[in-house]
Write a structure and sequence with these properties.
This protein is α/β, with parallel strands linked by helices and 352 residues long. It is 42% helix and 15% strand. Strands 2-1-3-4-5-11 form a six-stranded parallel sheet, with helices on both faces. The longest helix has 18 residues. It has 13 helices and twelve strands. The chain folds into three domains: 55 residues, 434 Repressor (Amino-terminal Domain), CATH 1.10.260; 138 residues, Response regulator (Rossmann fold); 143 residues, Response regulator (Rossmann fold).
Length: 352
């Protein structure tokens, strides 16, 4: 006879409901540790595995969260995204939830999100990411699709768009601004290696750049705005071209550490030393930043923490229908050896 909840409950002298509660959520506090261990051992002996589909039908919950990432390329090449996913998993795992990706393709991010939602029936909630493919307008369309669908959801990796939704927003205070820090070091020719032209982080970075220069009465040279598309090789190519075109700069701020890698390669190829000739600052404080030569100064973005808080907020919404919460996490400038006080440089002397 195949093992069942009834057989396990009868052999252990427990109610069927208690056994069912354990299998739905092994971390539950409604059952003693002793009885949890008894249930687990007998289930192993009988080779019993709960029927997830049957559980979902009986409870009207799947205990599965859908991850919506509106991007046409591989998700897992991004260390930035992976940090957030690790934070999400740490919370969902402890609460007995799983997550699933809904990979689809589309001409733009709202089309991808629409297709993902069409394929996402039966999940308990959603985590929506902003990506490199999203303009601010795209992000608004994606949030409005979620509001219209009326599912529990939380938003990560987007600026505050003014909606009353569950969202974790990563912001950089003035005290951690890379541009302000470089200006304080005496740099006035700062090259900004941005991501995609339409991406909100690019738009915000250029806005901050203009504000910082305006505060000091400095003119802005738009030739110092480059787009590395968040890719190492693209950033390397763009920087090499800028140097070959005679564009002068004494510091570089890259909107990802991955693009900073490309900057390191280009500067090394041209015989320019970091930070003796050119200071470099990245963003995200990726795991490899401290292992570069020299170790990379970077703006730390708390994506692991954002993932954890986002998952917690979503589960509160699912389980108790709490009012949406918007939480702001402050980025932090981590100083290492790739940035230094400005020293005049004739760039021709360092270029091979």
């Amino acid at each position: 006879m195949a093992a069942s909840l009834k057989i396990i409950s009868e052999q252990l002298g427990l109610s069927k409901a208690a056994v069912s509660i354990y299998f739905k959520d092994p971390s539950t506090r409604r059952i003693s540790k002793e009885n949890k261990e008894r249930i687990r051992r007998l289930a192993d002996e009988l080779n019993y595995r709960p029927n997830v589909i049957a559980q979902s039908l009986s409870s009207l919950k799947s205990h599965v969260i859908a991850i919506l990432i509106p991007l046409n390329v591989s998700y897992f090449s991004s260390t930035f995204l992976n940090q957030a996913l690790c934070g999400i998993q740490s919370v969902l795992f402890n609460k007995g939830y799983n997550f699933i990706f809904i990979p689809t393709r589309g001409s733009n991010s709202p089309v991808i999100v629409r297709k993902q939602l069409e394929r996402s029936r039966g999940y308990d909630g959603f985590i929506l990411f902003g990506t490199r493919a999203c303009s601010e307008e795209n992000m608004r369309e994606n949030v409005e699709q979620m509001l219209k669908a009326d599912y529990p959801f939380v938003v990560l990796n987007m600026p505050d768009l003014g909606y009353e939704i569950n969202q974790i927003v990563n912001v950089t205070p003035k005290s951690s601004s890379a541009i302000r820090y470089l200006l304080e070091l005496g740099h006035e020719k700062i090259l900004l290696m941005a991501g995609a032209r339409q991406a909100p982080d690019t738009v915000l970075a250029i806005q901050e750049y203009r504000e910082c220069f305006s505060e000091r009465g400095l003119a802005v040279n738009e030739n110092l705005f480059l787009n590395g598309d968040y890719e190492e090789m693209v950033a390397r190519s763009e920087l090499l071209q800028a140097i070959n075109n005679g564009i002068e700069f004494s510091a570089i701020y890259c909107l990802t550490d991955t693009m900073a890698l490309g900057a390191y390669e280009a500067l090394n190829e041209k015989g320019l030393k970091i930070p003796g000739d050119i200071s470099v600052i990245g963003k995200n404080d990726s795991f490899f930043a401290r292992f570069l030569n020299p170790p990379l100064t970077s703006v730390r973005v708390l994506m692991y923490e954002a993932g954890k808080l986002g998952a917690k907020n979503l589960l509160r919404r699912i389980e108790s229908n709490e009012t949406p919460r918007k939480i702001f996490l402050k980025n932090e400038l981590i100083l290492r050896l790739s940035s230094a006080v400005y020293r005049p440089l004739n760039m021709d002397q360092g270029i091979e």
